[in-house]
Design goal:
mainly alpha, 434 Repressor (Amino-terminal Domain), 24 helices
Length: 495
């Protein structure tokens, strides 16, 4: 007698058991069956195998109910027989083979597409939840003391998540614009978190590499360029040792973006621009990311002294900044536009932008930004002949930069003020101003060639022989050194 076709459930059982490499006897023992013949009957089709019994056996083999469902679905595709009504055009065996191939291919494609879609949605939902929890944890951390923060991330598992490490990195970047010490502390805290993140080693390497890049950025802002170089080397070693991850979780473009800032500060401009091109390609046109990258590219051109290219990049960045809705980016865009217009002595155009720049700075409340807006307004006032207004502004700016111990900015604003005082014949004030600048010569804030230029101005001021031409030559020399140095051995504050 011909043997009856085995049921889909029987075939599924045979496949699952064979995949595990278990014999019928071993499986019967694992199932607690005293008689192995029951399994023989199932697999030979001599006894009906119910779906719930198959799922129970599969679970003991280590398979999920979904695995059973998948096997039964595949069986339904392989055994597909098209319904045929009475017709003068019967299907040939070749017709049936073609139809079956199309059905199997379509079923597999649809299953794969839906599976990918559902997987993506579920991962995004989990990512959003992780970031929401990280935001709540950060709210607790930012009001804690330094020691309390360290204790929380060391001893409480909920504070040891990748999302919190990323959130603290973001806080470090934000702090860097105003408080370099806070940026360092936060970057170190993020590293402490990253070192305790759970998961596969490849994933942990990626998280640590990403955080080390932010440690490097914090060191750059603190003028520790050698330390920043070391941190970036470690960041890339860890990143490359890790496994590829969803680019939205840990975006590689951010690594290029942060390193570009260091290369810019080291005056390795071609490297900085190349890194920013890589970052822009990786950002995939996302408004916030692309806007930030283009604004950094403008900064490179500005430091190179290529003002026209800087303005061109700002024009390119404008639509992305507007689309982002980010006030910090909008402030940066407008400030840079006005500043570059000042470089070109287009003071009337800069004046038209200043009210928005000032309003944005007040809304954001960043201390250094507010000082620089006053400085910018003083430059515009001086360019338009409003010397008294410019003098008041520059005196305030010089004091603020001195209090904050930012030597480069203090020197530049002092020289701007000196030009106005020399023009007004206030040589005694110029001498006092030069004396007030002596702390700069002891600070690690300006390249030695710039310090040499400043010393020429200091000597002339003490002898009351300083001229506007000399002051402007010193300003130009300081700028030249800043732009031409291939790599600084000391640091300077961000400007």
């Amino acid at each position: 007698m011909p043997r009856e076709k085995l049921s889909p459930e029987a075939l599924a059982l045979i496949y699952l058991r064979s995949q595990r490499g278990w014999s019928k006897k071993e499986l019967a023992s694992r199932l607690g069956l005293s008689d192995v013949r029951q399994l023989y009957r199932y697999e030979r089709g001599e006894a009906a195998l119910r779906r719930e019994d198959l799922e129970s056996i599969a679970a003991r083999l280590g398979y999920s109910p979904e695995a059973v469902e998948a096997l039964l679905f595949i069986h339904s595709l392989t055994g597909y027989e098209p319904r045929q009504a009475a017709s003068p055009f019967p299907l040939t065996p070749e017709d049936r083979r073609r139809i079956n191939r199309a059905v199997i291919f379509t079923g597999w494609t649809v299953a794969e597409t839906v599976g990918d879609l559902l997987t993506h949605r579920r991962r995004k939902a989990k990512e959003a939840e992780a970031r929401r929890e990280a935001e709540e944890l950060w709210t607790r951390l930012k009001t804690a003391t330094r020691q309390e923060r360290r204790d929380l991330v060391t001893f409480l598992p909920e504070f040891q998540s990748w999302a919190l490490a990323v959130r603290v990195c973001e806080a470090s970047v934000r702090a860097a614009a105003d408080k370099p010490e806070a940026a360092l502390e936060l970057a170190d805290l993020a590293l402490r978190i990253a070192e305790q993140v759970l998961g596969e080693e490849g994933w942990r390497c990626r998280v640590k590499g990403y955080v080390w890049a932010h440690v490097a950025n914090a060191r750059r802002v603190a003028n520790d360029f050698a330390g920043a170089d070391e941190a970036f080397a470690r960041a890339w070693d860890l990143w490359r040792a890790g496994a590829a991850v969803d680019p939205d979780l840990l975006p590689e473009w951010r690594m290029f973006d942060l390193e570009a800032s260091l290369r810019r500060e080291q005056h390795r401009f071609s490297e900085a621009l190349a890194l920013l091109d890589q970052a822009q390609a990786g950002s995939r046109g996302e408004p916030v990311s692309t806007a930030r990258i283009l604004l950094k590219k403008e900064h490179v051109f500005e430091q190179m002294g290529d003002v026209q290219s800087a303005l061109a990049v700002l024009a390119e960045a404008g639509p992305f900044v507007e689309a982002s809705g980010d006030l910090h980016l909008l402030f940066a865009l407008r400030f840079k536009e006005a500043n570059n217009l000042c470089h070109l002595e287009r003071y009337a155009e800069a004046t038209g932008i200043l009210p928005q720049v000032r309003e944005l700075a007040v809304r954001l409340g960043n201390g250094l930004d507010l000082i620089r807006v006053v400085w910018l307004a003083a430059k515009v006032a001086a360019g338009q002949g409003r010397k008294e207004e410019a003098t008041v502004g520059l005196e305030q700016v010089r004091r603020d930069f001195t209090v904050r111990q930012l030597p480069y900015d203090a020197a530049r604003s002092s020289l701007d003020l000196a030009v106005l005082w020399i023009e007004a014949g206030r040589t005694a004030e110029v001498r006092e101003l030069a004396l007030a600048m002596t702390w700069i010569f002891k600070a690690q804030g300006i390249h030695r060639e710039a310090l040499a230029a400043l010393s020429l101005f200091y000597d002339a001021a003490q002898q009351e022989t300083a001229t506007v031409e000399l002051a402007r030559q010193v300003i130009a020399e300081v700028e030249r050194v800043r732009r031409s140095a291939s790599q600084r051995t000391t640091g300077e504050a961000k400007h």
